[in-house]
Amino acid sequence: MPQLEEIIHYLKGIWLLLKGDKRGFDYLDLSASGVWRSFAAILWCLPAMAVNWAAWRLYYLQTMPEGTTAGLSFILKLAMIDIAAWVLPLVLIAVLAKPLAYGEILADVIVASNWLSMPILYAMAIPSAIRLVVPGSGELAALLSLLALIVSFTAIFRLMKAIAEHTLLASALTALSILPPLIIGELLQRALGLFPG
Fold first, then answer.
1. Is the pTM of this model over 0.70?
2. 38, 77, 96, 182: which could join 111 in a potential S-S bond, CB 3.0 to 4.6 Å?
3. How far apart are CA 52 and CA 12, in angstroms?
């Protein structure tokens, strides 16, 4: 499990890559073990995820009939969806690496994507936290969520551009990083009965 000092080191590398500075790669562990260690970012993101789960639970209960419950199983299903939405796009990117001839940068994409997810998820948790603690803040939280989403999408593209260099490949990797989680999240929420309706 990477410690805080190591995480800060990785995030500095991500920041440099977002600015287009290739020295950012020097701060990342791109070895085979580094690829697997980068998935520890999921554990570091659990507090931010928990805030998002609590906010979604609150929204769910507010929009459902009185007496509706959303206990531990509700939260566990949300956790399962978040982990699936995190891991499955990376699996898809790995599967397509050979056919699309970007295998040489696959480790870079996986490691950088995992560590970039930390600031993204914590940024996305801010509107959720506001929704939880400030009554009647739904519209403000929705606006902040939209802004955070736009910034996140931009950051993902800039990261992929720093890694892939070619705009077409960077765009394809960005789409693979963004679209599957959105689709997976909504489909699983509806399938598992977590979507108000």
1. yes
2. 38
3. 25
148: Cβ contacts below 8 Å, ≥ 6 apart: 120, 123, 124, 126, 127
Contacts of 186 (CB under 8 A, 6+ apart): 195
Q: List the Cα angle 185/104/40 in 5-degree steps.
A: 45
Does residue 196 surpass a pLDDT of 90?
Answer: no
Q: Are 144 and 127 in contact (CB under 8 A)?
A: yes
Contact of 20 with 170, CB cutoff 8 Å? no
Residue 141: count other Cβ atoms within 10 Å of its Cβ. 19
Tokens encoding 144: 């902040």
**129, 151 Cβ separation under 8 angstroms:** no
Cα of 174 vs its chain's centroid, Å:
12
- DSSP one-letter string for the chain: ---HHHHHHHHHHHHHHHTT-GGGGGGS--SHHHHHHGGGHHHHTHHHHHHHHHHHHHHHHHHSPTT----HHHHHHHHHHHHHHHHHHHHHHHHHHTTTT-GGGHHHHHHHHHHHHHHHHHHHHHHHHHHHHSTT-HHHHHHHHHHHHHHHHHHHHHHHHHHH-SHHHHHHHHHHHHHHHHHHHHHHHHHTT-S--
Tell me the CB-side half-sphere exposure of residue 157, using CA atoms within 13 A.
12
Q: How many CA atoms lie within 13 A of 193 on its CB side?
A: 8
Domains of the chain, by residue range, sit at 4-191
